[in-house]
């Protein structure tokens, strides 16, 4: 609706932006670089962030940046994941049918990965999303799975991605010490700072094809204050502000307009 009013060719703050135009700040670039190293060395990594800080963006970019000639990325996101369904899900992505018993499926996966690495000369990268929802049995299974060839090597790169509680209220506990000791890399995605918040907004407007200044400096300040630098909240606030400006035929968004939509058109500005 508002896109044509502002001369846009794309919707700027939608969830389905192409991965190559998604904003990368230095913190995001650092985590991506670390994950590429994890993939190359077949390490065990944990990535956490607060809700809305860009885990999905990170994974989309990571997936796009992995050379298909050198890597196979397997992805699972299931809050009720069990070891049996873990192996079944990975084997299905490799084009295989899983055995009924967990032990059989585990051996199948190890054999399949050996074939991928030996015959096809590719490394396997397994990404488990929403890992903060996994239970103790599933987390323990990663330890057993990584105990490969008498613990002399890892069969694949394993990346657990979840909200901050994955580390703070689970992996830091003493009962998970054996798992924690196997983690090779721990990364966090922080909220954006003020400069990155502005860069994020400008990058999305550029993708939309907008050639004019839409947000005043004070409006950008207000977006940052209300969003606390969380990209998901920045998207919501900017989207509502653009709609409000269109409805009132305003070509420039100031801090008062941003405050108004935050107070009257959003259920909350932090979550």
Keywords:
single chain; 271 residues; alpha/beta; Rossmann fold; Helicase, Ruva Protein, domain 3; 2 domains; 5-stranded parallel sheet; 12 helices; 5 strands; elongated
Summarize the structure.
The chain is of the alpha/beta class. The chain is 49% helix and 12% strand. The protein folds into 2 domains: 164 residues, P-loop containing nucleotide triphosphate hydrolases (Rossmann fold, 3-Layer(aba) Sandwich); 73 residues, Helicase, Ruva Protein, domain 3 (Orthogonal Bundle), CATH 1.10.8.60.
Name the CATH class of the largest domain: Alpha Beta
Order of helices and strands: HHEHEHHEHEHHEHHHH
**Oligomeric state, counting identical vs distinct chains:** single chain
Indicate the proportion of strand residues: 5-15%
Strand order of the largest sheet: 2-3-4-1-5
Based on secondary structure, the structural category is alpha/beta
Instruction: Output the CATH topology of the largest domain.
Output: Rossmann fold
Domain count: the total is 2
CATH architecture tag of the largest domain = 3-Layer(aba) Sandwich
- Helix residue percentage: 40-55%
Please, how many helices? 12
Distance between the termini: 27 Å
- Outline, from the CA principal axes? elongated
| Overall residue-averaged pLDDT value | 92
* Rg (C-alpha, Å): 22 Å
Largest sheet properties: 5 strands, parallel
The CATH superfamily of the largest domain is known as: P-loop containing nucleotide triphosphate hydrolases
Taking pLDDT < 50 over at least 5 consecutive residues as the criterion, the unreliable ranges are none
């Amino acid at each position: 609706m508002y896109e044509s009013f502002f001369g846009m060719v794309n919707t700027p703050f939608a969830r389905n932006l192409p991965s190559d135009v998604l904003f990368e700040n230095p913190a995001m670039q650092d985590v991506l670089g670390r994950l590429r190293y994890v993939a190359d060395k077949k390490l065990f990594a944990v990535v956490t962030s607060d809700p809305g800080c860009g885990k999905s963006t990170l994974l989309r970019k990571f997936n796009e940046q992995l050379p298909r000639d050198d890597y196979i990325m397997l992805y699972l996101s299931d809050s009720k994941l069990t070891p049996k369904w873990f192996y079944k899900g990975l084997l299905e992505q490799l084009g295989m049918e899983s055995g009924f018993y967990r032990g059989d499926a585990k051996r199948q996966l190890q054999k399949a990965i050996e074939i991928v690495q030996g015959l096809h000369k590719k490394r396997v990268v397994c990404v488990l999303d929403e890992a903060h929802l996994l239970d103790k049995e599933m987390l323990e299974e990663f330890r057993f799975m990584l105990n490969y060839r008498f613990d002399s090597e890892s069969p694949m790169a394993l990346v657990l991605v979840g909200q901050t509680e994955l580390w703070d209220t689970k992996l830091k506990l003493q009962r998970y010490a054996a798992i924690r000791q196997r983690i090779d890399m721990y990364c966090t995605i922080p909220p954006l700072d003020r400069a990155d918040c502005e860069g994020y907004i400008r990058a999305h407007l550029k993708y939309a094809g907008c050639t004019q200044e839409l947000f005043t400096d004070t409006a950008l300040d207000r977006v940052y204050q209300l969003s606390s630098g969380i990209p998901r909240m920045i998207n919501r606030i900017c989207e509502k502000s653009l709609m409000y400006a269109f409805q009132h035929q305003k070509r420039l968004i100031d801090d008062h307009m941003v405050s108004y939509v935050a107070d009257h058109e959003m259920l909350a500005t932090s979550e």
